[in-house]
From TrEMBL:
It comes from freshwater metagenome. Keywords: Membrane, Transmembrane, Transmembrane helix. This is Unannotated protein. The chain crosses the membrane at residues 12-31, 123-144, 151-184, 190-219, 239-258, 304-322.
């Protein structure tokens, strides 16, 4: 690509990032009755939550919602207030050991708030929007590497799951951005130090994101078997750097176990299931919702099954397309699809989870289906 083409693709990547951020802003505005809310509204702390009095004492203007408005943003808010679980906030949330297994979102919010605990909701909002922008920019650059239009970065702005996450201050936008940038760093041949740093932040953001590293490592092992040789010392160092992130997560989980005397795992029934029983159970739950009597329950129950079937078609098509193992995109998609089969009805049957949780798997599937095989080994693509 010539200099002009390179500059043009960079400008398009910036445009994709801006559009994604604007889509996030528009989603927040639309989700709050066409008005811009206080950032604390997005944290979704209900007045009945044990942490509500603490939030109100920190910021008397903190927007406490009704009992139904409780959502996951409050856990990252708690972690930002109590990063090492040695203060008060960790005692005011349910399943604290599980919540603290994914601390990085809260840590970054604490860092961005510069010690001002009243500014934590604003920091969480900034992270959500920043994740959209970084994800769109990185996705655009990956599309260019694979010979596609840089406007492919707009897929971030088209993701209902990521836009929803922006409205509730959860991890998905920045998690997807970190996954995209780790893949970009790998494909571009960045240094082992950069890969290790990205891997640490990625793994501590959400434990499921370790699958991105597993996918890259799996591809490298397959390539080594194909070539019947080990790549150079630089490649070996970069592979070793990938292991730093999971090692950091392992060390942190040992700390969490010491603090809470339990391993971080969800206690809610229906979060995970034996493949594919969770999907089948989701159809039963959806059918029951159709007959629950309320208009809202009926709408959820009647629309969930077609969405899940469409999602299954997308994931299975990506699994078939990935069978040739042409690049790390393929192996990442394979492990993402494998995990999707183990989701339970609690994750799949209701809109607030069915859009949000599979968002990275959907992005991986689209990448496999729409991006061609690279013309040269990905780790040799020039900067």
């Amino acid at each position: 690509m010539g200099a002009d083409g390179g500059r043009t693709s960079i400008r398009v990547a910036v445009a994709c990032a801006l559009i994604a951020v604007l889509a996030g802003v528009a989603s927040i505005w639309a989700a709050n009755d066409a008005a811009w809310p206080d950032a604390s509204t997005l944290v979704k702390v209900a007045f009945s939550d044990p942490i509500a009095p603490l939030a109100a004492s920190i910021d008397p203007q903190f927007d406490l919602g009704g009992g139904q408005e409780h959502y996951d943003g409050l856990y990252y808010y708690a972690i930002a207030l109590d990063p090492l679980a040695i203060g008060q906030a960790h005692e005011l949330i349910d399943m604290a050991g599980f919540r603290y297994g994914r601390p990085m979102h809260g840590w970054l919010a604490a860092l961005l708030s510069l010690g001002n605990r009243a500014a934590v909701p604003e920091a969480l909002l900034v992270l959500s929007l920043l994740g959209l922008g970084l994800g769109a920019f990185g996705a655009s650059r990956i599309c260019v590497m694979f010979g596609r239009t840089p406007w492919g970065g707009l897929v971030i702005a088209m993701s209902p799951g990521l836009l929803f996450a922006t409205t509730v201050s959860t991890t998905e936008t920045m998690g997807a951005a970190l996954a995209i940038w780790l893949l970009l760093a790998w494909l571009r041949g960045w240094s082992a130090w950069a890969i290790a740093a990205l891997g640490i932040v990625l793994c501590l953001y959400r434990e499921q994101l370790v699958l991105v590293i597993i996918g890259i490592l799996l591809y490298e092992v397959i390539e080594m078997i194909r070539r019947r040789s080990v790549r150079g010392a630089g490649a070996v160092r970069r592979v070793a750097a990938l292991l730093v992130g999971p090692a950091a997560l392992g060390g942190w989980l040992l700390y969490v176990h010491a603090r809470f005397d339990a391993w971080p795992k969800p206690d809610d029934a229906g979060s995970l299931s034996v493949p594919p029983l969770g999907w089948i159970e989701s159809f039963h739950v959806a059918y029951g919702s159709q007959n629950a009597g309320t208009f809202v329950d009926h709408q959820i129950g009647s629309t969930a099954p077609p969405y899940l079937i469409a999602l299954a078609v997308l994931l299975l098509a990506a699994l078939w397309a990935a069978r040739r193992l042409r690049s790390p995109l393929d192996t990442i998609a394979i492990v993402q699809v494998a995990v999707m089969t183990a989701l339970g009805w609690r994750t799949l049957a209701f809109p607030h989870e069915m859009y949000r949780i599979p968002s990275l798997a959907i992005l991986s599937a689209l990448a496999v289906l729409l991006l061609p095989a690279p013309s040269r080994p990905p780790d040799r693509v020039p900067q």
